[in-house]
Amino acid sequence: MPKTHWEYTLYVPHDPRAVGICRRTLRDILTTHHLTDLLEPAELLASELVTNALRHTDGPAAMKIRQSGPAFRLGAWDTDPTPPTITTATPTNTSTSGRGLRLVNAYADDWGWFAVNGANGKYVWCELGTKPD
Questions:
Q1: Segment 62-95, tens digit of pLDDT
Q2: How far is CA 56 from its chain centroid?
Q3: What sign has the CA pseudo-torsion 96, 116, 47, 10?
Q4: 96 to each of 99, 108, 122, how far by Cα in Å?
Q5: Which PANTHER family match (predicted)?
Q6: What distance in Å separates the CA atoms of residue 74 and residue 26, rounded to the nearest whole number?
């Protein structure tokens, strides 16, 4: 029987190529754990969270994914302790920012954040329901 409790963390440098590396790693892990129904939403959400982590800081970041029973959680850690906020202005077709947390809020079953070790950064997470293949 497949193990339903697992966790992976991928630490990445402050490099825009890290977002694609996180997506490919996530795809491999979800495929290995027979969670292919989560591929598209999880890749979208991971892209948004890791992009935000890299866009709003100068330091490294990390993508963390875990499953505990039916709950699948993914998130991104960064070095900025500033709380994430959803912009109040609606992004236009030509806007280059302001969609990330709106997408997370729309696609995830739940999301939130917490400070990490005081002023040492934050972790923004979201959850998706699972239906194993």
A1: 999 999 888 899 999 999 988 887 766 565 555 4
A2: 14
A3: positive
A4: 8, 22, 23
A5: ANTI-SIGMA-F FACTOR RSBW, ANTI-SIGMA-F FACTOR RSBW-RELATED
A6: 9
**Which residues is 110 bridged to in the sheet?**
127
> What does the pLDDT look like over 38-69, one tens digit per residue?
999 999 999 999 999 999 899 999 999 999 88
Question: Going along 1-133, which residue ranges are E strands?
Answer: 5-12, 61-68, 71-78, 110-115, 122-129
Q: Give 5-129's CATH code, choosing from 2.40.10.10, 3.10.560.10, 3.30.565.10, 3.40.50.300.
A: 3.30.565.10
| Sheet with 110-115, edge to edge strand ranges | 5-12, 61-68, 71-78, 122-129, 110-115
Q: 116-128: per-residue pLDDT in tens?
A: 877 789 999 999 9
What pLDDT sits at residue 73?
Answer: 96
List the chain domain ranges: 5-129
CA distance 125 to 83: 12
